[in-house]
TrEMBL record:
<dbReference type="InterPro" id="IPR000846">
    <property type="entry name" value="DapB_N"/>
</dbReference>
<dbReference type="Pfam" id="PF05173">
    <property type="entry name" value="DapB_C"/>
</dbReference>
<keyword id="KW-0520">NAD</keyword>
<keyword id="KW-0560">Oxidoreductase</keyword>
<keyword id="KW-0457">Lysine biosynthesis</keyword>
<feature type="binding site">
    <location>
        <begin position="145"/>
        <end position="146"/>
    </location>
    <ligand>
        <name>(S)-2,3,4,5-tetrahydrodipicolinate</name>
    </ligand>
</feature>
<protein>
    <recommendedName>
        <fullName>4-hydroxy-tetrahydrodipicolinate reductase</fullName>
        <ecNumber>1.17.1.8</ecNumber>
    </recommendedName>
</protein>
<feature type="binding site">
    <location>
        <begin position="78"/>
        <end position="80"/>
    </location>
    <ligand>
        <name>NAD(+)</name>
    </ligand>
</feature>
<feature type="binding site">
    <location>
        <begin position="105"/>
        <end position="108"/>
    </location>
    <ligand>
        <name>NAD(+)</name>
    </ligand>
</feature>
<comment type="similarity">
    <text>Belongs to the DapB family.</text>
</comment>
<feature type="domain" description="Dihydrodipicolinate reductase C-terminal">
    <location>
        <begin position="111"/>
        <end position="247"/>
    </location>
</feature>
<keyword id="KW-0963">Cytoplasm</keyword>
<feature type="active site" description="Proton donor">
    <location>
        <position position="139"/>
    </location>
</feature>
<feature type="binding site">
    <location>
        <position position="136"/>
    </location>
    <ligand>
        <name>(S)-2,3,4,5-tetrahydrodipicolinate</name>
    </ligand>
</feature>
<feature type="active site" description="Proton donor/acceptor">
    <location>
        <position position="135"/>
    </location>
</feature>
<keyword id="KW-0220">Diaminopimelate biosynthesis</keyword>
<dbReference type="InterPro" id="IPR023940">
    <property type="entry name" value="DHDPR_bac"/>
</dbReference>
Amino acid sequence: MGKLRVAVIGAQGRMGTEAVRAVTAAEDLELVAALGRGDRLDALVEAGAQVAVELTHPDAVLENLEFCVRRGIHGVVGTTGWTEERLASLRGWLADSPATGVLIAPNFGIGAVLTMRFAQQAARFFESVEIIESHHPGKADAPSGTAVRTAQLVGAARRAADRGEQPDATMTALDGARGALVDGVPVHSVRLRGLVAHQEVRFGDEGEVLTISHDSMNRSSFMPGVLLGVRRVVETPGLTFGLEHFLDLDD
Ligand SMILES: NC(=O)c1ccc[n+]([C@@H]2O[C@H](COP(=O)([O-])OP(=O)(O)OC[C@H]3O[C@@H](n4cnc5c(N)ncnc54)[C@H](O)[C@@H]3O)[C@@H](O)[C@H]2O)c1
Ligand SMILES: O=C(O)C1=N[C@H](C(=O)O)CCC1
């Protein structure tokens, strides 16, 4: 079998630079295109790309994915900012191109995916939960895609366990002091020079606190997840949301 032909969109960015390096170094993959802002998407077709790794900006990702899916190019997406409305558009394009696969990974870090899974498992046992995510100050979106996904998973697990609202006697608060409420879970976003990507999920109950915490120290740590996504997406038509679906976590 020949090498899988891979393109990177957003190739000059922080993540894109790492992805270009990782794809180039992988023996079973061939980097056939590296696109930056302003480059023609037609270059993907001309290069014969089979998979596009999308690492751009929430404002650009939908247009790039529509182009790819309509041409049968599979997508591995790290770009954040996903809403139900955006996902519905993507599902529509995929319905018209049923052999095409798209993986959206809020986080490619294996440890971060496990953090989300562990938080989901812990959620039903605790009265209180808050999420603190901390990132570099160049990040465009807040809260992080990882924190939003974690809060959704925790919120769903709390609902399934009939956990009511969290205790909180706050009567007056400055705007933002209690974070953003995502699915009933307060999420606090820190932006600090020197950081890469970090998250703490703090659970509390009478007399005990459980903190599940994960740190990405560099962006090369995301690359095993990106490469796994590239290899698996070509055999997984439709939308896959979350790298956990490619990790066989229940085995
Ligand atoms: N899923 C994950 O594990 C993960 C990890 C890190 C970052 N991210 C996300 O990936 C995205 C990129 O992050 P980053 O830190 O690399 O950002 P960045 O700003 O360093 O890089 C983005 C690059 O995309 C380029 N770009 C913008 N619009 C484009 C377009 N239409 N076509 C081609 N290129 C375009 C920019 O010029 C820039 O070079 C963000 O949404 C971020 O949150 C996800
Ligand atoms: O650096 C970023 O930007 C990151 N974005 C993702 C998110 O929003 O969760 C993953 C972590 C790094």
